[in-house]
Amino acid sequence: EGSGFKEFKGEVLINAPLEKVDAIIQDATGYTSWMSDCLEAAILEEKSPTHLIYYQATKAPWPVSNRDMVLDVTVTKTPDKIVRKMRHSVHAKKPVRSGYVRVPKLDGEWIELRKGEQTYVIYRVKMDMGGSLPASVANTTATKIPYETMLGLRRVATTGK
Q1: pTM of the model
Q2: CA-based, 20 to 30 A from 136: which of 49, 71, 81, 103?
Q3: What number of other Cβ atoms are within 10 A of residue 22's Cβ?
Q4: Quick one: which H or E segment has residue 147?
Q5: Tens-place pLDDT, residues 101-130
Q6: Which residue, 37, 26, 7, is CA-closest to 152?
Q7: CA 130 – CA 103 distance, rounded (Å)
Q8: How many C-beta neighbours within 10 Å does residue 147 have?
């Protein structure tokens, strides 16, 4: 509400245990192999095992500038559920890069649920892409990103590739 940008959500049932899926989501350096349009990702700081600062750079459709973001991530774990809440942040290790637009607002989460030997994953993000990008253009990726990301996550979790 109050924004022209659409929130997106992807859901997938993966034929892999929760611990395996979680290890993939936790490993930011692997995001480029399965997350839609991810150009770069890293953990900037581990404040604690349940509080991390991530950096991510994302490819934008031509002629729009690529985006990058610093994310403050908090993790809550129970034996059958893991929740990673993300929100935009700033960090001295990652000032705004030339040629990129810093995402000024982001709220999202990864929810992983144990379903026997399978894992049900929900990925939800609402963001303002920043810059002069019209919401109507940004919203064209609102179905592509979660769909391709969920397919990539399932592929890596089940095949290792």
Answers
A1: 0.90
A2: 71
A3: 21
A4: helix 144-159
A5: 999 999 999 999 999 999 999 999 988 777
A6: 37
A7: 5
A8: 14
